[in-house]
Structure prediction request, 219 residues.
Amino acid sequence: MKASVFVFGALSLFTPAVFAQGQDPLLDQFVQSELNEGNGASQGFLSPTGRFRVKIPGGFEQQEGTDPDTLIFNGQSSGYAVKLIFKRLSVTPGASSSQLMLTTRDRFLSKLANFTILKQGSAKIAGRQCATLIGRYDYQGNKGYPQIIENAYVVDGGDGFIIHFEVQEPGYTYAARDALDVYKSFKMIAPPQAEPVAPPPQTPPATSDASPKRPAKKR
Prediction:
């Protein structure tokens, strides 16, 4: 069952996070490691907007879409279907990744059946501290189809980036390996700076060559 399609339609905003410390050795390694070290900036998938590069797990295929700020990849981890989404959106300059996380967390709580927050934390991604969220919900309220969503939130100036992994609960441990590669390889690219516009030339005030007339002397 395509649970992730249901979530994406309900929220119009997908999000992945970072795996909780203490639940899996791979997760502890992720939290403790420098995620911005690894692939060079010249490697990996370049987003259509040119704002980031990232290593896409092997076998994941990009889905067709017309929105350059919403990139969707489908793949598998040990036979479990995994959805990976990168979402770029505008944020108020100075906003934190925690503020961005709260926005999507509230949507999950209000839209997803039996959504439960399993972990809120932070991790270093792309050289900065980022808010993270991991949660569980029942697809269409069916307890036989529990889903795990993993969210990481990156803020860079006026841009917010949400990385989303979603997988059936039994496949969560396997998807963690792919998520680690994504978080470790995620690199921000600074937006191009607009060239300064020269002010228009000032026109000097008009002057008259005529000398002022002197009043005539009285005789």
